[in-house]
Amino acid sequence: MNLSKNANSRLWDALLKELLIESMNMKIADLSGDEVPAPSENFEKNISKIARSVGRKETARNAVRLMKNGAIMIAAVLSISFCILLTQPKVYAAVSDVIKTANSGGFDKYAFQGAAEKFDSTIRLSYVPDGYKLRLAEYADSIAFLTYENYDEVRINFTYGLAENTSFSIDNERHEYMEISKGGTNYNLYLAKENGDWSSVVWQKGGYAFCVDAHISADELVKIAESVEF
User: Which terminal CB of the chain, N or C, has fewer other CB atoms within 10 Å?
Assistant: First the structure.
């Protein structure tokens, strides 16, 4: 059964409240020296029912198993809750600022959270391979399209925009994907398997989303990406 986002959210709220209440009861009993009670009669049934409704049954079962061991604490419940919440797109976005979605059509879609206070039209690549110069700069609302070109008319395309207003779709079938983390920034690389295809790098930083497309190596792509100044 497919649930709406609101219904899904309400069910997870119920699950987390159930976990928290049970854990509090156990902790109170433990601190008072009383025998730690087993979870209430309908606890596992309720958790399983809620979990089935939102497709996270195994996670809920693991939580129930921990509760039954009697070693659960509020902090542990919060940790479990956080792991569960990380499966929800909105929470994952708040942590990483980037949402990557694999589409059935052979593309990975990137959406971004957060934004700079205002759009800066002066952002440039401070490094490009020898012979490349900025030839074209176009702007549409809060997105910029810049083209660098060498004497052989080989291009490097640089696109950036306010993060929350920008999304990118990258082919994931004719490319090899890899992720590189440098200086606290994650760079998502798509390296062309054939010479005629573009390689790309996508990343988010400082409230902006960026993408570079070029016919160059992975090392050069990352070097270009790291050079962005704003």
Answer: N
